[in-house]
Amino acid sequence: MTRMGRIAALAATLLAAPVLAADGPGADDLIVPAEGRTLDEYLWVRRPVVVFADNPADPRYVQQMQYITDRADALRDRDVVVLTDTSPGDRSAIRQALRPRGFMLVLIAKDGSTVLRKPFPWDVRELSRSIDKLPVRQQEVRDRRAEGQP
Question: Is residue 15 classed as helix, strand or coil in its secondary structure?
Fold first, then answer.
């Protein structure tokens, strides 16, 4: 199978898979659509990683979502919620706030500040490192150790 064929097959799989819709910002779902959501509902609760694309078949979007699904546990451990927006015409509140152009990955801290913006897919290992450097995350790790949790 050609590279484009593999990308198309992966895109079809992601599109056919049920999207995990959160009932609220505290829900355990990892991947939720950005439509109808705001960044404020995650303030001090979860760390949004927002993945934008102009089309769900964009190879960069497909690759980013594969990275995320391959290492979902690492993101859940860091209180991450992945918000996806592949409909630029819908003008979601999150899209209006972050103003992406084409593909974009954005990491937002629990305090609502933008930590990083990348115009290309980024590995979850690198995302995890960026999250682990944040002061709030470092405090969470210290608190877990004090409570005897791993």
Answer: helix
